[in-house]
Structure formats: structure tokens, C-alpha cells
Amino acid sequence: MLRSGISCARLGALCLVLATSLGTAQAQVTPESLLRADLRGTADHPLTGRYTGSVILAQTGKAFDELKLPSGRAEGQSYDNNKKFSAQVTAQGKVTRTIYIAPQGRSSLEVMTNFTDAVAAKGFEPVYRCTAAECGDSFVTLKYRWDLNEAKVLGENYEHQRRLMVDAVFDQLVDIRYTLFKKTGADGDSYVGLYGGLHRGGGFGNNSAALSDRVGVVVEIVEPRAMDRRMEVVSAAEIGSKVMADGKAIFYGIQFDFDKADIKPESEPQLGEMAKFLTANPAAKVFIVGHTDNKGTVDYNLGLSGRRADAVAKALVARHKIAAARLTPRGLGPLSPVASNREEDGRTKNRRVEMVEQ
After folding, report:
1. For 15, left (φ over 0), alpha (ψ -120 to 50), or beta?
2. Which of 46, 48, 62, 108 is least surrounded, with the fewest CB atoms within 10 Å of its CB?
3. Nearest to 283 by CA among 334, 343, 255, 243
4. How many CB atoms lie within 10 A of CB 20?
């Protein structure tokens, strides 16, 4: 019965619309509602567990990825364009990243000590730890920031409100704490990075207000795991078809050492097929073009992709007797992506070598 005394039976469809609207309003996602329960489909990592009463705001996992973890204090002021970590560890393997939000009224010291004690109990040793000013003025800006896409823990299907909260988290903190742990095992090194602090203020309106007086913690874990080798070799015949149809052929079977232009031995099958195509088409002249994702500065990636393209051209000349005059190496860095760089799957597609007809 409506307040006016008119029954829903008499209003019919209008009453149904009003009821539906009321239900939708009640189910609306708010900043506060995101802090009442874990993100669906997430779970604690067995190496850490969680602080009692915390919720998982965001979590991502990759079977094989690369993560840079600070192993030294931040150098430079927050506004300094040259600010950087004095030392970093680059770890590869199975990567799990989780953001926890603790209940109100708990200190950063209490929450972070619970996490560090749990990791130490698993046999991990601290590589580096710092608190507040010891971490350096620009630590907060370098470690996690709303406009630092590679730092954010952001799943592909997060609704709009959760994306806003992922931006707001760690925006303004007091009593920050960070510890990097390492454990060496038979399969390699495992790392656990713990970063957190108490939210006070922030520039994200209702989202910052919901986080106020709550400790946020990002737990980053890298476990040793071999990368699956799934990149198919493009045959000489396929190269010819792709060049005829598209003016270029794309290769993911040419692998490089991280941050270097050294071609890995497993790249030889793909180099061999490229050479077969060029040998079968002696009049063909091509550009060898290197591409990267958008991690790092544009200028650096342009240089790296150019060095990699040059390494491929030199390998074709030295190992397969292709005339150098037929090959022109160029690097485009992140300037010609084939997918979005927001997620690792897209960044993987963008890291490639192409053969483009001249």
C-alpha cells in the first residue's frame, strides 16, 4: 500500500516501475559498500593471509609476469622529474597483487606488523625496510599513484566505482611502511613486497572519505615459475602471404633478455624462417621494426626497440648470409601498439618485431 492509500493493484505498471527503481537504488554500488566485502573471486595468498576485519578491494594474478620492487629508499622530491628509487629488484614468475583495506581505528604499525610477522614466519628474510621519512620524500609518489598505470592493481572487468576507489587508494597517507622480503628455494627466489599506510585526506571526494582512518596495504608476491613457451613460429610461406596481404609480418617468436637487445637462443627458429623468405625472394628489401610496450619513457623505449631491430638485422646477416643492404632496422618503441597497454595481455602483444616491405 502506498502512503496515499492507493493500492499497487490499482496503479499496475506504474507501481512496478517504482518498485524496480527503489530496488535499483538500494543495490547501488557506493564507496562504503566496496569496503564491506571482498571483491568476488578473490582470496588470500597462503604466504600472508590477512589482517582480521580487512577486505580485498582489488586483486590481480598473472601466471608469468615481471615486477619491479623497491629495494632502496626513494631519491628526490615528489615534484622532481628525476626522482627514482635508489635500488630495485626485477623479479619474474607468478605474480599476485592484492590491495587490502583494514577496519577503521587501527594503526599502520599494528596492521603492517601483522603482515610482516606472517611473512617472516614462512622463512622469508627482509631485503629492505623503511618507515615514514626513512623511505624518502618521493616514495609514495613512485610506489603507487592514480596516474601511474603500471602500479595500479586494476582488473579488466571492474565496475566504474571500484575503478575510482583503486585510483583513490594510497592517494594521501600518513605513517607509511614498506618491507621487501626474499626467500631462496630450490626453484629460485620468491619475493614479497608489503607497502601500506593510514589514509588521511585525499583528492577523490567520497572515495577518499570512505578510506579515511583506514590502513591500506598492497601485497605483491612473485613466485618462481618458468614462462610457458607458446609463441608460434611464422613460417616462410606465411611470411610471404602476410607481406603480400598486409605489407608486413609480425613476429613474437624473437625473444630478448629483459631490458636488453641480446637475442635469446630460442629465437633461432623464427630467424631461420625469416631468412628462408628473404632467400626465396632475392629482390625483396624490408624494414626490420622493433616495438615495445609503454613501460618506461618514450625516448628510452625508442632506443631499446631500435637496438633490438638492429640486433635482428645483424643476426640475419651474420648467421644466414642475408645482404645487409636489403635490411633497414628501425625502432618505434610504444608508438604503434596493436593492443591497449592497460593490461599485461595487451603489453605482451605490443612487444614484437615486424618485417615491413619497403
Report:
1. alpha
2. 46
3. 243
4. 10
Record the pTM: 0.63
Element (H, E) at 45: none
Looking at residues 238-242, what average pLDDT do you find?
A: 95
**Structural domains of the chain in order of their starting residue, each with its CATH number:** 1-29 (no CATH), 35-223 (no CATH), 236-357 (3.30.1330.60)
Confidence bin at 19 (pLDDT 50/70/90): very low
pLDDT exceeds cutoff 50 at 9:
no
User: What one-character-per-residue DSSP string does 81-143 give?
Assistant: TT-EES-EEEEEEEEEEEEEEPPTT--HHHHHHHHHHHHHTTT-EEEEEEEGGGG-TTHHHHH
pLDDT digits (tens, 9 = 90+) for 205-236: 999 999 999 999 999 999 998 655 555 799 99
Average pLDDT (115-123) is 97
Using a 10 angstrom Cβ sphere, with 0-12 exposed, 13-18 middle and 19 or more buried, the burial of residue 231 is: middle
Give the C-alpha separation, 168 to 219, whole Å: 17
